[in-house]
Every structure is written in C-alpha cells, then in structure tokens.
Design brief:
Two copies of one chain form a homodimer. By secondary structure, chain A is of the alpha/beta class. Chain A is built from twelve helices and twelve strands. Chain A has three domains: about 45 residues, Orthogonal Bundle (434 Repressor (Amino-terminal Domain)), CATH 1.10.260.40; about 130 residues, Response regulator (Rossmann fold); about 140 residues, Rossmann fold (3-Layer(aba) Sandwich), CATH 3.40.50. In chain A, about 45% of the residues lie in helices and about 15% in strands. Chain A has a six-stranded parallel β-sheet with strand order 2-1-3-4-5-11, with helices on both faces. Chain A has a four-stranded parallel β-sheet with strand order 7-6-8-9, sandwiched between helices. At the A-B interface, α4, α5, β2, α6 and α11 of A face α4, α5, β2, α6 and α11 of B.
C-alpha cells in the first residue's frame, strides 16, 4: 500500500519530520509560512494521518468486535444491522466474526479481538458454549463487554435480552386459548439459555392450565433448521396423530413444519395449529401465514451498541461502570396458522 | 482498558524494556535465564503484544474492509458469510460497513477505511452510485480492491460477477418456452449495472423470439422490495389483464407478486407464471414454490476474498498485480410457479 507519509512531505519541503507533524497539528512554534506550505502539499498528496499511530497515542482503536453465531439468519442479520448503523453514527467501526455455533471458534475469535485491542466486544454465544472462561478473560482485561440474545447468566457484563420464558408462555397460552389440547414443543439445543427458557415457558404453561407435561411430546433440534422442522413434523404426525398444536423454537423450524404439512395434506390450522418464534420476514408470506412472537432484532443491536459505548465512555473518564441488563419487549403476532 | 505492557514486565524484573522485547522475540543476545523469567512473567500477566505497534512495524493491519448495500438481505448475507469464513481461515479480520444503498454514505465509508489503513477493500456498489471518484481514490492510494455483484465497469480492479444478461435471458426464454406470450419485467433501479443487464437480457430475448418489446410492460422498482412486488402485481393485473408471465429482478419482489396473486385469486402459474432471481431461501417454501435463477452468494464472497488476498500478497512481494474478472455460473431452477 503506497500512502503519503510525513517523511515524504518533509523531504519534499526540505524540513524535519517533526516540523511537518507540528505544522499539521497547528503548533505555535511553526511559522505560518511553513504551516501553509505543509498543509498545501499534504492536501495535494492526499495525506491521511496513519490511524495506527493515532491509535498508539490515544489508546483507542475506535473499533469494536462482534461475535455472532450465524450471519445468514434473519434475526441475527437484523441485530447486525442495528449494531453497525449505531456504530457508524458514533464513529466506530465493527469487526464481525462468525462462530458458526462452535465454542472452539468462538474462543479463538475472542483472543483475536483482545489481541487487536478493540475498544469493546459484543457477543451472542454459540449453541455449543458451555463454559465462559473466554468471557472471564475479556472482563479481566478490563475490556467493555455486552452479551445479547444467547448469554451466560453468570458473567457480570451488560446484557440485552428478551424474557424468553414469558414470551414462550404467551405462545403456548395462545395455542391453549384457541382450543389445543395436545401440544408439541420443538425445542432448541441443550446449552443455550434461551432454548432452556423457552422450554420452561412451555412446560409451566401446560401445568398452569392443568395439562399433563409429556416428555415424549418434546423434540430437540441440533441445527435449529428448516429440515429438522420438516422431519419432526413427519414424526409427530406419524407417532402422535392426535397432536393439535406445535410451538417451535424459531420460525425457520416452524416453516419446516408448515412445508411438511402442506405437502402431505395435513390441514393447518384445522388439524394442527402452529406457532413459531422471532417473526422472520418469511413468516408473513407463508401459506398459511405463520403466527409467531415478534423479537426486536434491530432494536437489540442498537441497545447493545449503546450499552457498550456507555461503558467505553465511563472507562475513558476513569469512572466505574455498573453493568446493566435491558429486557426488550416481545409481542404475540397471531396469524392464519393459529386461526381456528 | 488495562493491558499488561512491556514496561510493566521490565519494571517488575528490574531490566530494560529493550531486553524484555528482545527476550520475547528470542534474540540471541539475551541470556536464557532472563528469557525464561520474562516469558514466565508475560504468561502469568497474560501479556499480549500490542497489535497497533505490530502494525506500525509490519505496515499490515491484517484487516480488510467490506462495504455492502444491505445486511438483512439473503443474497448479501450469503456473500458476507463466504467472505468472513475465508478471511478467518487466512488470519484476516473483516470490518463491515453498510451503505444502505446511499452513495453519500458509501463515499464516507471508503474514506473511513482508507484512513483505517485496511489491507484491502471489498465493495458492492449502492443503487445510488453513479460516479466512481471514491473507487479511483482507492486505486490511486494503491489499496487492493475487489468489486462484486454491483460493480462499476470503468474501474480497473478485480471483479466477481455473474453474467446477468445471459441469466436473465435464460429466465425469460423459460417463460416463453412454457407458452407465455405477454411477459412483464419488474426491473431494478436505473443505475446498477446488474439491473441494466437483466433488463437487456429480457428485451433481447423477447426480440430474439419475435415478441414486440413494449415499454409499458416494464415496471421499475426503487427499493427492490416485497411491497413493490405486491403493488406492481395489482397494477399489472388491473392494467394488463392478459399478461401471462412475470420476470422479477429478484426473488423478494417475485414473492410480493405471489402474495398479491394468492390473496386475490389470481392463479399461479395457470394465469400468470412467475420467475424471480437469486434463489433466496424463502423461494423454496412459498406456495407455489418460486422458479428462479440460482446465484452463488457464498461462492462469490469466497472468490472475492481470495482475489483480494492474491493482490495483497503480490503487492507485498513488490510485484504488479493484474486485476482479474471472475464470472460465476448461474442456474435456472424451475419450480411450481412456472410449471404449466
């Protein structure tokens, strides 16, 4: 990369590098004539200050790191959208790393970002994450940290979450209210806190309504994919022909259920009512349109960035930042897939 | 941010900073005893080398910049996926900026990345981009550049594209082959090369088949959105009730057409056959399933990163890199929306 340096400007004008540097910073001990000559040449050569050198002086990189399980994912891409828009407005750049739901990769990426001396880190944990030593290291190094969506409760950092248990309870209560008696839950993997909480919301709501919890009606995703929804729908209709409601961990899985039912003459919602979670764009264009819980992805990204910026600024002023947990509101969206 | 410095290690051991630095780099003029003491303390204090200082020495940031119109977009998120996976494998970090289809923001972001001294820049132009001074500045500064998907033909950089004209011709020929006589094109905005090329592919294919080109059958999107597809479908069926085929600039717009037709009793494909472009995930779960042109997003990201890395490496070795243009293969995917 060829870029104009202070040295070139100094050599061209026959003055010292120090004088060039002082002239560009408008120091009083450089004559106006020299200053003007330096500025004119710097403009002509399109000189831009070396940001690494600036970083060394200010100890700020004006860059934050974001570790996210998947990019090709409607919810996470909405979160990224909120984060980079907010970062842009505040003069920060965002390095994005994708853990591909792998704890090994996630740990490596945390180390990379620490080494890069980012000003702060935003993270949503991978499904494999079952320990948090790497998050502890971030805290030990005094690097501002905000967890969002898939979090570790034990780590004392700011968090942006939704009330997964409450939102899941609302989804299941909706199925019960429209008359469902035998409700399946297609849950997420074992580790993530949000999969645990949505499962608990399901179980508690059944019990609250006097419906016996039956573990054989819970199906567990490994990939949280369309294909799993499709396959589980086949198993459900074969093994439990009297199931009349399905609550899926996320819309992508629920769409797999719809696809199987549409292709195999299982009437939705008459035979089985289906509700997803997250309000992916495609939910509203499915036939029938999919009921779901709206989860504000973009807002989650914005709030997470702003919490991180608060912490960066408090640290800069030498203060002590007290981590905050922000719980965002979710909304039940009832569409044709649960309209009996 | 509190991080261990060479100075702290030097002070703790009562030796000079230079000696600490040399010990960590395993220089021969430091005694094994001192080396061991420095390494042990560095490990204990979890010392990580300051990457900015390393950058100043090597003049490499091991960071590249990516400017993309939209993140919440199935095709672009697939491209991002390919780029950051490939970057990760090669030890590079990726700063992602979103132009929101604005030329003003795109120019500002190019300036930011130049100032940040990234090792290279990957860009897909915004729909508003109608000049390329900012791209010329990247080239003038000798910063490696790869354009992908939405490109400026006049800029002498590497490019990763598809043959939009040929792919569009294939889509339109498919509609003609299944018997469509009056075919609408819902095109993209005026500036982007790919929207121009898809339109030309449509026009030329009509002419090649002896069908008169009728400008009143071309509808122009501003946002390239679901809503526009929905609205245009209403106009098309009202103003041209004898239209029997629609070729849309992208699947999102085609899905808007399907939604309007489904809600208003217009039978697809019997009354109107519909084909999109890009093979978004949701196309295969629509009712009816949407025919489309598959465009390899992930592969486009991988190839773009690898071309950039080639250029970075050639420059590092002092060679002259000759920009390459890679044209990726597309495939017609015929589904129920064009199965008469």
């Amino acid at each position: 990369m060829k870029a104009t340096t202070l040295k070139e400007i100094a050599e061209t004008l026959g003055i010292s590098i120090t004088t060039v540097s002082k002239a560009l910073k408008n120091y009083a001990d450089v004559s106006p004539k020299t200053k003007n000559a330096v500025i004119a040449l710097a403009e002509q050569l399109q000189y831009t200050p070396n940001s690494f050198a600036v970083n060394l002086r200010t100890k700020e990189s004006k860059t934050i790191g974001l570790i996210i399980p998947e990019v090709v994912h409607h919810f996470f891409s909405s979160v990224i959208n909120g984060i980079i828009d907010q970062a842009e407005k505040n003069g920060y750049l965002v390095i994005i790393l994708q853990s591909n739901e792998s704890i090994a990769l996630e740990k490596k990426q945390v180390a990379l970002l620490i080494n890069k001396r980012v000003d702060g880190i935003l993270i949503s944990l991978s499904n494999e994450s079952n320990n948090d030593l790497h998050l502890k290291e971030i805290l030990q190094k005094g690097i501002p940290l905000v967890q969002f969506d898939k979090i570790s409760k034990l780590i004392h950092s700011s968090k942006v979450i939704i009330d997964d248990q409450k939102a899941a309870a609302e989804a299941v209560q909706h199925l019960i209210d429209i008359g469902c008696k035998k409700i399946v839950h297609i849950r997420g993997p074992i580790n993530p806190q949000n999969a645990i909480d949505r499962f608990l919301g399901y179980k508690k709501t059944l019990e609250k309504n006097g419906i016996l919890y039956d573990p054989s009606l819970v199906y567990t995703c490994q990939q949280v994919s369309f294909e799993e929804g499709f396959e589980f729908a086949k198993k459900i209709t074969t093994n439990h022909p009297d199931v009349d409601g399905v609550f899926a961990i996320t819309d992508l899985v629920a769409v797999g259920v719809l696809a199987y039912c549409n292709e195999n003459g299982v009437k939705i919602p008459q035979q089985i009512a289906v509700i997803g979670f997250s309000n992916w764009f495609m939910s509203q264009v499915m036939t029938p349109k999919l009921s779901t819980i709206d989860q504000p992805g973009r807002e989650m990204g914005e709030v997470a960035f702003n919490l991180l910026l608060d912490e960066i600024n408090v640290n800069k002023e030498g203060g002590t930042f007290e981590p905050k947990t922000v719980t965002l509101k979710t909304n039940l969206i009832a569409r044709a897939s649960t309209r009996k």
